[in-house]
Structure formats: structure tokens, C-alpha cells
Automatic annotation (TrEMBL):
Domain Thioredoxin, residue spans: 1-182
Keyword Chaperone: no
Keywords carried by this UniProt record: Oxidoreductase, Peroxidase
Naturally occurring in which organism (per UniProt): Paenibacillus chartarius
InterPro entries: Glutathione_peroxidase, GPX_CS, Thioredoxin-like_sf, Thioredoxin_domain
One term of GO molecular function: peroxidase activity
Recorded family membership: Belongs to the glutathione peroxidase family.
Protein name, as recorded: Glutathione peroxidase
Taxonomic classification: Bacteria, Bacillati, Bacillota, Bacilli, Bacillales
Amino acid sequence: MTIYDFTVRKSDGSRVPLYAFEGKPVVIINTASKCTFTPQFADLQSLYEQYRASGVEFIGFPCNQFGEQEPGSNQEAESFCQINYGVKFPIYGKLEVNGDNAHPLFDYLRKAAPFKGFDDSNMNAKLLKMMITEKNPEWLLGDSIKWNFTKFLINRQGEVVARFEPTDEMDLLRRSIEAQLHT
């Protein structure tokens, strides 16, 4: 199984088969407009601009499961990213990433790249872990996505090669993209 087996919806509701990205490295992100990590849009857009000419694609999927930080419509989520962060990579339709109503793509991503734990030397990771422990301890179990701005790097064959937590340094993602471009 690969991401090419899934179909998703754009913000306008139209369906997109992910095999449209066949042969390209892809970064898939669950996003939110009102999150502490929302400023990562600027870094993600910068990486997109840096690697777009090399064929790397980025896809954002707004999600309202974490603290209801994406309360608006699909179009509001997309507009927010474009207006406030100059995001030019596609922001698709809202979906759920965990639980019974999780989109099958995210079920696949979570199982292909399980959660490996938070970096306890990273203060933001410690704070996020404390908050989740207090408010939603069940999210710490298993392969669930822990918060907004979890990123998955997909290789040219449509396979998940890495998972990045919201607290991971953006340079880790950049180096992993570079590695995919040389394979």
C-alpha cells in the first residue's frame, strides 16, 4: 500500500487521487489556523519554494481535532494560510486524523510511521507532552497523531519514509527532503 491508493478532497470539495503525485516526494501536514505551531506555515512555505523546482510537493490538511483550532470552513482555512503566511502549496479539505472518523490516508500514515516519542531535551516537546497528558492522555498511546503540524515525508514511490512531530526542528525535515532528492 502507498499514498497512491487514496483519494482526498480539495477545499472546494472536488476529489483528488493521490496518484496525481506519483514519482514526486511529498510532505503531508495536518494543519490548523489557531495553533501555537501555526507560524510553521512560514517555514513550510519557504521549504516548498526551495524544493518545488525539484518536484517536491506539499499538501496541508486542516484538522479541528486538537483544541478546535481549525473551526472555520475549508475555504476559510485555505484563505487564512494564503493571506497570513503566503502559502502557495495546496491546502485541501478539512478532515480528521485520529479516531473512528479518521480519513483512511491518515490511518495509513500513522501505521506506516508510528509515534516514536517526544524529544525530552526539547522544551516545546516537554510542554506539549504535559498539555496532552493533562487534557487528552489517550492521545499519548499508540500511533495517534499527537497535535497539529505533524508532518509525513513520502518518497517517490508513495511510501512513508519519516514522521516529524510538531516540535521537531524544521531542519530535520529539510535534511530528509534533501536525502529523498538524492535517492
